[in-house]
Amino acid sequence: MRSLVALSCVLAATLFGTACDNGPAPTTPTPGTPVTDTFTGTLTLNGSQTHPFATTAAGDVTATITAITPSDKSIGFQLGTWDTVTCRAVVSNDLATINSVLSGQTQTGASLCLKVHDPNGALTDVSVAYTITVAHQP
Question: Sign of torsion, CA 65 67 71 74?
């Protein structure tokens, strides 16, 4: 008798579980192939440069300093949101050197920016040339 009750409970649970099935779970879209933008410029004492770019889909955004000349200098760099006037920093590094990386994610397409600057007036005796790549969804 106990096995009949147990079997009835399992069968009832199975039937009720399938009666509530709303179909397959939604799938998350697969991001497309990232694009890479390359930004170059030169910083001088207390200088800064802003490089706007846009994404059309959610996904990872990664900025990498690929060159700094002279190579013993550090610069500040930031990833942020762009409102056509101001680059509002979201992630930053004020002591970045060659191969430094900043990364984040967007939940939707967005107007973004990369800002490069002289951290605290550190570039007193020399200008610094830089190259930074930014990989993101197109």
Answer: negative
